[in-house]
Amino acid sequence: MNELLAVFRRELGGYFATPLAFIFIVIFLFTMGAFTFYLGAYYESDQADLTIFFNFHPWLYLFLIPAISMRLWAEERRSGSIELLLSLPVPLWAAVLGKFLAAWAFSGIALALTFPMWLTVNYLGDPDNGVVLAGYLGSFFMAGGYLAIGSCLSAVTRNQVIAFVVSVAVSFLFTVSGLPIVIDFFASWAPQQVLSTIASFSFLTHFEAITRGVIDLRDIVYFTTLIGAWLIACGIVVDMKKAG
Amino acid sequence: MIVIDGLTKQFGPFTAVDGISFSVAKGEVLGFLGPNGAGKSTTMKMVTGFLAPSAGSARVCGHDIVTSTLDAQRMIGYLPEGAPAYGDMTARGFLKFIARVRRLSGAEADKAIDSAVEATELAGVLEQPIDTLSKGFRRRVGLAQAILHNPPVLIMDEPTDGLDPNQKFEVRKLIGRMAAEKAIVISTHILEEVDAICTRALIINRGRIVADGTPAELMSRSRYHNAVSLTLGGRTTVETAEKLRSLAGIESIEVSPRGDETTFTLFPARSGEGDTMLVDAVARIAREENWQVRALYGEAGRLDEVFRRLTRSDAGGKEAA
Known about the structure:
The complex is a heterodimer. Chain A is mostly helical. Helix content of chain A is 82%, strand content 0%. Chain A has 15 helices and no strands. Chain A is globular and about 55 Å long. By secondary structure, chain B is an alpha/beta fold. Chain B has helices spanning 40-47, 69-74, 91-101, 106-120, 135-147, 165-178, 191-197, 215-219, 238-245, 275-289, 303-311; strands at 2-11, 14-24, 29-33, 55-60, 63-64, 76-79, 153-157, 183-187, 200-205, 208-213, 228-233, 250-258, 261-268, 293-298. In chain B, strands 6-7-8-3-9-10 form a 6-stranded mixed sheet, sandwiched between helices. Chain B has a 4-stranded antiparallel sheet with strand order 2-1-4-5. The longest helix of chain B has 15 residues, at 106-120. Chain B starts with a strand and ends in a 10-residue tail after the last helix. The interface between A and B is medium-sized, with 25 and 30 residues.
């Protein structure tokens, strides 16, 4: 536990040691705002809720989260510090989890800094703050899902750019697996059960369910299982790739 | 403190380390020698728990590195090849992280960091990001990290690589100071280093041990062992060599002229007789013949020659101890 905390603190500190944290947060907040107010036509919608705001989250995360996760392991492998880290008395799971939690906490900080949206909507009208809270919770869990995918794929390569591109591609598949772009490909030949299984992998489906204010245990289980599975895969990849 | 038995590592069809066995006791400084790709670093990576061995075992202070990895790793201070570190951290931040991982906290951690910083003379650069440090300082940050928790076992992969002669001297002094109460393994390419700090040297080639002994023992395998080197100024003639050859117990003589000097290397017959007698005899002749002696000394042996002979790719394991 000590070791996990040490890795967590180092990694989170690492984001703020470089301009990365600052740049990320500024761009995240700026695009969030711009998308909501201009693309989403927030004022014209005349709705005092944050549905429009949350609807953009998956698409922003798709590109911004891999930017957080790409360095997690690729950088360790490139600089050789992975040899130092894994010859210290740190269990592999603590290293994997500590890094993931640091990245998740960082994305949580960025998400929390969108609180002016919440203030705005409360100023403009009388939203159901329970629904807003559910939206934030769902968004946070979804960010964790993207991060777990990115963390695993970052361990596959020592090149951060490759890690980024592959993470975006895989995250995209997970985001849209419920949409026609993926379903149509299987629809002509796969049985219905397969289709619904594939569709049930979609981040969008689960996230939208949560943002409607319905915190279904199945959606939470989905994201935690997904995070767990990708982190286990991450541990396996890190262990396999050590020699290379 | 370190017991290694039949340690083997295969990468696919390639065997990097092939059944290495040795042990290192407290107070020993083991020099790990071998050409690039001989398996030095791979062996160290296995002993420190970074790579899993394909076969064989390694125990550190009684803890098996495979079955009780963390306990073994707590006993080890390790400087990986190239002294990797987290470049965006300051030296102090990095050492604090290491202290935390090593379960040192509060005053204990501060004390450990202070003494490691003092030993490696890092005080001046503690607040700088490691990326901005010179190669020598980076190496010293790596050293400080390795000795931070005062480990009973210290494993260092090329600790003086890339350092200037002054820094090398300092690092060797540091290792020498710690040697008495630790078991230390260092890998190196620098043969003089072995002579300077190691109590024992182990030469490996193609994943196998080809020699194991004290530096003196290894040097005694050199053809220069007990040879006498005589450098004469002025004109030398064929008779000079003949005179030297007439001495008792000489097997052969090599003559190498350089400038206005000529160096004769006299190889004694391998009888194991002390070299001082031969040096005395040569000195006597030189006096009698009134030669201009520029240098005269008995050689202990040359490690680089032993190293080359044992590790040339065709040498195989012929000389294995």
